[in-house]
TrEMBL record:
This is non-specific serine/threonine protein kinase. InterPro entries: Kinase-like_dom_sf, PASTA_dom, Prot_kinase_dom, Ser/Thr_kinase_AS. One of its GO terms (molecular function) is protein serine/threonine kinase activity. Residues 259-305, 359-404, 596-616 are annotated as: Disordered. PROSITE patterns: PASTA, PROTEIN_KINASE_DOM, PROTEIN_KINASE_ST. The chain crosses the membrane at residues 408-429. Residues 1-258 form the Protein kinase domain. Residues 379-388 have a biased composition (Low complexity). It comes from the Bacteria. Residues 430-497, 499-564, 565-632, 633-698, 699-760 form the PASTA domain. The keyword Transmembrane applies.
Length: 760
């Protein structure tokens, strides 16, 4: 349809791509008018994913379009180099292409020819969509070439094949096929001809990419299925809807951002390589210098120049071959072709052709029969010229006649064998290889199969549902009776299966599988409103209407209700629970733990869950992943009453640094031991700066001594570093203390005196 050249905008000094349409299109006024309209429409679009259009016009017999030059390659070349793409790469290519299509759809334009060759990838990683409106312009031309198909067969939507109509949903179908090809490395339909490939999509659905290559996420299978529904009404209605669905899938799968690499060995990259100068062999240079007259140094001589055999031919062929291959590759890929060498420029000049002179193989140059095959005999004595001239030729002649007779006999035998073979082949290709398909009208199934086999043909039974014919009644054969076909050909025997029935379903019946079963039974399934279910997995069938087992007429409508999986759920409160308890609670709510992370929470002990991400109370889809936030707080141990050294050791074991806070009065601790800490025992500190200030008591609390013996009271006070003064009638350690001063609970300094009164 067109050829692309690389050119230079002399006014603005920039490189551009010039697409020149074939001459038969420029000769058609309808094409010129529509091509100009489409070019103006596309030029008005503004989107980074579109190849910019700079100019359009007619030059003689050529309609042309001046566009932005994208340095890089095509998606087709990238797929050939690297094979199928992972989901994140396929999404990175599809996203800008869909954005570009959405801009066109909003402007009322339809691309009609979305395919890998029209998706350009620049060396900077930009993805751009090319060739907008060109197919629509060609659709309006009067050209009737049988080799031109409006669009590419592998990417046509069913309605383009059946009715020729194309709308935004047709571009969505092509994008679905393109996404399938990126994920799997091949197109969904194949066939012997473009027509066969195009018509398969009318009867068949595009298979899920995951059925072709392992590891494709289910979300991409669903995206491709929705984009390639055979009925345009069931697809995304335009590229904007499909782009939004792709973004939703990418977010759900946490797909990373990806810079699409340009193909390394693209046609454009090859076209930029300048072929090296053709080397001149030293012998050729010498021969040229010697053979060319001095007065003709400018190359104007008509004389033949002698070169060594093959030298000039090899050099010329190499230079021409390299340039030709690059230009051909660029033209085939729809990319900019290499610029031709300008006459009189810096490039190589026109190839000069030389005549190579080859010596005879026998090294002789005799004349008039001397030398060569009938030349001088090598067994003659030197100088014996008479021996050579007087030697008779009779023996040679006799030998030649005998050899001729043998050759004639051999040739006659070969001709006879060839005639026999040709006769047999003529019979075989004329009528021997053919047989007649038998007439089977009125026969039952067994008789039809026997008749077909007797005719040296291979019967293949094909069940067909019928409202009128009983089971196993023969409905017909294909080819029909009386047709001449090759022996061994397959004859399809259509046999009635009776009226279809609704298939049984289970909780494991997938929506796609049930839809396929219904279509195989000649029914018309439609998708009802999807429903939430806690018992039936997503994309599996909840119910069918009419119900399973019901016998219905051929072509009956059947409504299939699919499951959306469990309904959305609220994230429960799992604060204060262990990770194991929180995981079980989330699983009971149809949620999954997607990981854990730690954070300081002063209200939750370390090792227990302090929260979730998303937070509690948020509404999320069932089977969503939830991250547990686990507290890493450290609880302050109780070191009251311990010596400062023992307190430091206990805090260090807990991962806490002790800070000396000095002394404190009025605590219950004995003087010289830890009176209090800040934070207090039982409180929680952040491990990032875990410190506890320790205060040492400088007073002692007087204990309750009433009721103790004098000896016990003295011992208790001595242990506290306090002196004892005893008032008693008899000096005995067994006397009972009946009073004390100061009273119990009083704070006194070390070395103070406590007076006790005892009896008797």
């Amino acid at each position: 349809m067109s050829t692309v050249f690389r050119g230079t905008d002399q006014r603005l000094g920039r490189q551009v791509a010039v697409k020149v349409m074939h001459a038969e299109f420029a000769a058609d006024p309808a094409f010129v008018s529509r091509f100009e309209f489409e070019a103006r429409s596309v030029a008005g679009l503004k989107d980074p994913g579109l190849v910019s259009v700079y100019d359009q016009g007619i030059d003689g017999d050529h309609a042309f379009l001046v566009m932005e030059l994208v340095r890089g390659g095509t998606l087709r070349e990238l797929l050939r180099e690297r094979g199928p793409m992972p989901p994140h790469a396929a999404a990175a290519v599809s996203r800008p292409a869909l954005t570009a299509l959405a801009a066109a759809h909003r402007a009322g334009l339809v691309h009609r020819d979305v395919k890998p060759e029209n998706v350009l990838i620049s060396d900077d990683g930009d993805v751009k969509l090319a060739d907008f409106g060109l197919v629509r312009a060609v659709a309006g031309t009067n050209s009737t070439s049988s080799s031109v198909m409006l669009g590419t067969a592998a990417y046509l939507a069913p309605e383009q094949v059946s009715t020729g109509h194309a709308g935004p949903a047709s571009d969505v179908y092509a994008m679905g096929v393109l996404l399938f090809e990126m994920l799997t490395g091949r197109t969904p339909f194949t066939g012997d001809t473009n027509l066969a490939v195009a018509y398969r999509r009318i009867e068949e659905d595009v298979p899920p990419p995951g059925s072709v290559i392992a590891g494709v996420p289910r979300e991409f299978d669903q995206l491709v299925r929705r984009a390639t529904e055979r009925d345009p009404a069931d697809r995304f209605q335009d590229a904007a809807q499909m782009g939004a669905a792709l973004d939703s899938v990418a977010t759900r799968l946490h797909l990373p951002r990806f810079r699409v690499p340009a193909p390394r060995n693209s046609a454009q990259h090859r076209s930029m390589v300048v072929p090296p100068p053709r080397p001149q062999p030293e012998e050729a240079t010498t021969a040229l210098s010697a053979a060319r007259p001095d007065h003709d140094a400018d190359g104007g001589s008509d004389s033949t120049t002698v070169l060594p055999a093959g030298a000039a031919a090899a050099g010329a062929a190499g230079a021409a071959g390299a340039a030709g291959a690059a230009a051909a590759a660029a033209a085939d890929a729809g990319m900019a072709a290499p610029e031709p060498w300008a006459p009189g420029g810096d490039g190589p000049s026109e190839t000069r052709r030389y005549t190579a002179m080859h010596p005879r193989a026998d090294g002789a140059d005799g004349v008039d029969g001397v030398g060569g095959e009938y030349g001088q005999q090598h067994d003659a004595a030197p100088g014996d010229a008479a021996a050579a001239t007087e030697r008779p030729y009779d023996d040679t002649a006799t030998h030649q006649r005998r050899r001729s007779r043998r050759s004639a006999t051999v040739w006659a035998a070969l001709i006879a064998v060839l005639a026999i073979l040709l006769g047999v082949a003529g019979w075989w290709f004329g009528s021997g290889r053919l047989t007649t398909v038998p007439a089977t009208a009125g026969m039952d199934k067994a008789a039809v199969l026997a008749a077909v086999q007797d005719a040296d043909l291979d019967p293949e039974v094909r069940g067909v549902y019928s409202d009128t014919a009983p089971v196993d009644q023969v409905l017909g054969i294909n080819p029909s009776g009386g047709t001449r076909v090759n022996r061994g050909s397959t004859i399809t025997v259509s046999v009635s299966l009776g009226r279809p029935s609704i298939p049984q379903i289970t909780g494991k019946s997938t929506f796609d599988a049930v839809m396929a079963q219904l279509k195989e039974r000649s029914l018309e399934p439609t998708r009802g409103s999807d429903e939430y279910s806690v018992t039936v997995a997503a994309d599996h069938v909840i119910r069918i209407d009419p119900g399973p087992g019901t016998v219905v007429p051929v072509g009956s409508a059947v409504t299939v209700t699919a499951s959306k999986g469990p309904p959305p759920v609220h994230i429960p409160d799992v604060a204060g629970k262990t990770p194991e308890e929180a995981t079980k609670l989330l699983a009971d709510t149809h949620l999954r733990v997607g990981g854990q992370r730690t954070a300081f929470d002063p209200g939750v002990d370390g090792g227990r869950v302090s929260g979730t991400d998303p937070a509690r109370g948020k509404v999320v889809d069932a089977d969503s992943r939830v991250t547990l936030i686990v507290s890493n707080a450290i609880s302050v141990p109780d070191v009251s009453g311990k010596s400062p050294a023992a307190a430091r050791s206990a805090l260090a074991d807990a991962g806490i640094e002790m800070v000396d806070g000095g002394t404190v009065s009025g605590t219950d601790a004995r003087a010289g031991t830890v009176g209090k800490t800040a934070p207090a025992a039982g409180e929680r500190v952040d491990p990032a700066h875990a410190q506890v200030t320790v205060y040492v008591s400088d007073t002692t609390v007087v204990p309750n001594l009433v009721g103790d013996t004098v000896g016990s009271a003295r011992s208790t006070l001595a242990g506290l570093g306090v002196d004892a003064r005893v008032r008693q009638l008899l000096d005995s350690d067994n006397s009972l203390v009946i009073a004390q001063s100061p009273s119990s609970g009083t704070h006194i300094e070390p070395g103070a005196t406590v007076t006790v009164t005892a009896v008797p």
